[in-house]
Specification:
- This protein has 472 residues and is an alpha+beta fold.
- The protein has helices at 31-44, 63-69, 83-86, 89-98, 108-117, 141-150, 227-233, 281-288, 323-331, 367-370, 382-395, 413-427, 433-438, 442-458; strands spanning 11-17, 25-30, 52-55, 77-80, 103-106, 131-134, 155-160, 170-174, 187-188, 192-197, 210-216, 234-236, 246-256, 262-267, 271-274, 277-280, 294-303, 309-317, 342-345.
- The chain folds into 2 domains: 11-269, Rossmann fold (3-Layer(aba) Sandwich); 276-469, GMP Synthetase, Chain A, domain 3, CATH 3.30.300.30.
- The protein has a 5-stranded mixed beta sheet with strand order 5-6-7-8-9.
Length: 472
């Protein structure tokens, strides 16, 4: 006896995004919306039984859904990659090439790391790749120019879409780098509509900025157990009320171009994307206000000269909290990628004339300000001094304590790869990712490097196994 058969309106999955109230938001996506996205990717990327799709996204990302399932509807193959492989660009490129991957999707910052780490890479390294997709954050014109200068025959797809609309709602396929500095996100996919609306809900003319709203089969049902937020963001499409479509108000700002593509401008609110992670700054602020003594806090995104983004927390507190204790407090409440790289203590917040916090007058982060909350330890050995210089260059920081954790200073997996590369270049010591994670400070890395050098001299240059130093 067979059970009930699911229909297009049944729930396919629930996926969580960051919430400004301090609670993640669960988005309910229906079967029809999920399938529509899968079929759109099949059509746009010309997927068939010969397609080999890389599954390299975390299952907490909405893009993991299509990476995992799309091959099933065309008879193709899905190849799964572990985090250990992904965090080693040299190994990842080798595996992608050896596995004959035809479809690969990454965030632009990871693509930049792949390009920066492999200057010697040639077209043979992606011999079977048909499409490189970038998503999760804005891709730069300069990165696309660099890509097409090396791989002129591999198309790049700039994808845009919120988790609330079953992932991608626009795709922009390129075979050359665009002439504009702001790269378009493309045109709507099948069965989806895009509206650019002003503050009164009216459509904006071409070239005029407004809120990006989307309607159609892919829009999710609502937020799980959040009726108020659901009513605010999921509304009936006012332009097609007879069809009963839901329209999702993304909170993103964009505009139409003359060619019918959409240009993404930024966020209306204080939600941001850093290295593909969608972050509500209010969630971090909410967690910081729960720390004893903290009376006011503002979290912003700081972009350095290289374009890398990091989180900065400004605090007004009755006492002088220690950075390490603040990070431990946050680690128990938010994901690690939401822990600020900088903690700046202020006597009071700068205010506008109407009494609101004036974010434009917040002092730019620097190490002199940040040291108020740090316990600084100077480098002593030549190895420590050179490692400090490497950390400073990669992290864009001034004074760095040798005992500070690389990841707590604003380091992330992509910057870690740069440090590993520079250590290999300077000390001729090859670190693997596991070793770095176990020794993420200058002092611990210096002990490891010095120990390798001691054994190398003792054994007259023989290779040294890293496993021997995991307890350093």
């Amino acid at each position: 006896m067979s059970g009930p058969v699911g229909g297009p309106g049944n729930l396919a999955y629930v996926i969580y995004t960051s919430g400004s109230t301090g609670r993640p938001k669960g988005v309910l996506i229906e079967q029809a919306g999920m399938l529509n996205h899968l079929l759109a990717m099949k059509e746009e990327l010309k997927l068939d039984e010969g397609s080999r799709i890389a599954q390299n996204a975390s299952f907490t990302f909405d893009i993991s859904v299509w990476q995992l399932l799309n091959a099933l509807i065309v008879g193709g193959s899905t190849v799964l990659y572990s985090q250990d492989v992904i965090l080693d660009p040299t190994l990842f490129i080798k595996r992608v090439t050896g596995d004959r991957i035809t479809i690969l999707q990454v965030v632009p910052s990871y693509l930049k790391a792949l390009m920066d780490m492999r200057e010697e890479v040639d077209e043979e390294c992606y011999g079977h790749l048909r499409y490189m997709l970038v998503t999760g954050e804005a891709v730069s014109q300069s990165l696309l120019k660099k890509w097409f200068s090396r791989f002129p025959n591999i198309r790049v797809v700039n994808a845009y879409g919120p988790a609330e609309a079953a992932d991608d709602i626009t795709l922009h396929v390129m075979d050359i780098a665009p002439s504009e500095s702001n790269v378009p996100v493309g045109k709507p996919i099948r069965n989806m509509k895009i509206y650019i609306l002003d503050n009164w809900g009216n459509p904006c003319p071409v070239g005029v900025e407004g809120e990006i709203c989307t309607s159609g089969i892919g829009v999710g049902r609502c937020y799980l157990n959040d009726e108020k937020r659901s009513h605010e963001r999921f509304v009936t499409d006012p332009f097609l009320p007879e069809r009963g479509y839901r329209m999702y108000k993304t909170g993103d700002v964009g505009k139409w171009r003359q060619d019918g593509t959409v240009e993404f401008i930024g966020r209306k609110d204080n939600q941001v994307k850093i290295r593909g992670h969608r972050i509500e700054l209010g969630e971090i602020e909410n967690a910081l206000l729960q720390y004893a003594g903290v009376e006011e806090t503002v979290v912003i995104v700081h972009e350095d000269r290289s374009g890398d983004k990091s989180l900065v927390a400004y605090l007004v507190s009755r006492n002088r909290p220690d950075t390490e204790l603040l990070r431990n407090h946050l680690a128990a409440k938010v994901p690690l990628y939401m822990i600020p790289s900088w903690f700046i203590l202020l006597e009071k917040m700068p205010l506008t004339e109407n009494g609101k916090i004036d974010r434009k007058r917040l002092p730019p982060p620097d190490d002199t300000l940040a040291e108020q909350l740090n316990r600084f330890v100077e480098p002593k050995t030549s190895t420590e001094k050179e490692l400090v210089a490497i950390f400073q260059e990669v992290l864009g920081r001034g004074r760095i304590s040798v005992k500070e954790n690389f990841f707590e200073l604003g380091g992330h997996s992509l910057k870690m790869l740069k440090v590993i590369s520079k250590i290999q270049e300077r000390f001729h010591v090859r670190l693997d990712v596991a070793t770095f994670f176990q020794s993420p400070s200058v002092v611990s890395l210096a002990k490891f490097i010095d120990a390798v050098e001691y054994l190398r001299q003792r054994d007259h240059g023989a290779p040294v196994e890293q496993e021997a130093f995991f307890d350093v």
